[in-house]
Design brief:
mainly beta; two-stranded antiparallel sheet; Porin; 20-stranded antiparallel sheet; globular
Length: about 400
């Protein structure tokens, strides 16, 4: 009897430990990022000061060792909306600034309203394969973005259609080969929302045909990083006059960490779009966007940073004023954005960030000063969208905590 009691006691002690062993590969993480932002220079603006949530998130990720170098991997990540307004950094199908005058209408709750990168996969000696909701434009939007989720976010210029992520994506990543890695993205027909393409009329046969992308990366001694991205995104429309819309950005990014104290980076993007009419005659427009920036640690906990972005005019083989796949050819459609900021770390997990941003639009341009991570590309809740010939400028202070 006594031996039975001892056995029961040992089992009771060991059972929680065994359960912990089964879940010991699971990590809970997140980020809370709130900001006070003031913006001026936008016509019809009724509230130039707001508290924003900036891609705040909560996630769970883990692995299971399957033996012989194989692992099952997963991640579940959702937004945490600290203000109750806007999409809070959804990164998918974010409307253009001209369509986001009322971000509050897009609110879906404080927690779990929008799914971020969420996937299941296998890591093997021959590479990693993932399936789920994964990056699309986010493959390059954050490569050189020194003001991510702040005012002056580079996404205001280099996020082309607002599809930061795609549903149902399949992603294969090679092993690291002497600093080189590559990945290939496959987007099935159901992955991308066709309604974001201006001029495409959704209908019974409308949708997105299978699309694909690729990324090449090289890293040398943590000092030099070079990334190349290409995306071939196709949309089929029920509109008989415009049935095939292609979006083919090419992006080259480079980062040089010249010391432990600082870095400089640059990015070049060619945004090329074309459509084929029912008669098979193609139309094409394109623009180029580039940026350069840097940061330097001026004290143990403090970093100065600055970034400049330039969007050039939209050109193409169509008449002026013609829109092709959401991009209109016209003179004076370029813009410049200057951003200056200072980051101060209160601890390893908590930081205060300050930034000033100004965008100077040409007469036919309407670029803003915030990306998808700052609520809904606009200040919330009552501010007008940026329109021609606005020149928005603003000041923001962020408090960020990682856990």
């Amino acid at each position: 009897m006594q031996k039975k009691l001892i056995a029961i006691a040992i089992a009771a002690v060991l059972a929680p430990a065994a359960a912990m062993a089964d879940t010991g590969n699971i990590n809970v993480y997140g980020r809370l990022n709130a900001s006070l932002v003031s913006q001026i220079g936008v016509q019809g603006q009724t509230n130039g000061v707001a508290v924003n949530t900036n891609s705040s998130r909560f996630g769970v990720k883990g692995t299971e060792d399957l033996g012989d170098g194989w692992k099952a991997i997963f991640q579940i990540e959702t937004n945490v909306n600290l203000t109750g307004t806007g999409r809070g950094g959804n990164g998918n199908n974010v409307a253009s600034p001209a369509a986001t005058a009322n971000p509050a209408a897009n609110s879906t709750g404080a927690f779990g309203g929008q799914i971020r990168d969420t996937w299941l996969g296998l890591s093997t000696p021959l590479g990693t394969i993932q399936a789920g909701r994964l990056p699309m434009e986010n493959h390059w939007v954050y490569d050189t973005n020194l003001f991510a989720d702040q005012i002056g976010d580079l996404g205001a210029f280099n996020s082309m259609t607002g599809n930061g992520r795609a549903n149902g994506e399949i992603l294969y990543t090679t092993p690291n080969m002497a600093g080189f890695t590559a990945n290939v993205q496959f987007y099935p027909t159901s992955s991308v929302n066709p309604s974001i393409v201006t001029g495409v009329t959704p209908g019974p046969t409308a949708g997105t045909s299978a699309s694909w992308g690729m990324e090449l990366n090289y890293k040398f001694l943590d000092a030099v990083v070079v990334n190349f991205n290409y995306l071939n995104r196709n949309t089929i429309s029920a509109n008989s006059a415009l049935y095939d819309a292609e979006y083919k950005p090419v992006v080259l990014s480079a980062i040089w960490n010249f010391s432990s104290a600082g870095l400089v980076n640059a990015q070049y993007l060619r945004d090329k779009r074309n459509t084929a009419s029912a008669a098979g005659v193609g139309q094409q427009v394109e623009r180029t966007i580039w940026n350069i920036g840097g940061k330097y640690n001026i004290m143990p906990n403090g970093t100065l940073k600055a970034q400049y972005s330039r969007a050039n005019d939209v050109t193409g083989d169509v008449a002026a004023g013609t829109a092709v796949n959401g991009l209109t050819k016209n003179a004076n459609t370029g813009a410049n954005m200057f951003v200056f900021g200072f980051d101060y770390s209160l601890s390893k997990r908590t930081m205060v960030q300050m930034a000033y941003a100004k965008t100077k639009n040409d007469t036919n341009a309407a670029y803003g000063i915030t990306g998808a991570g700052v609520n809904n590309q606009q200040l919330a809740p009552t501010v007008s969208a940026v329109a021609t010939p606005d020149n928005p400028r603003g000041l923001g202070v962020n408090l960020t905590h990682n856990f």
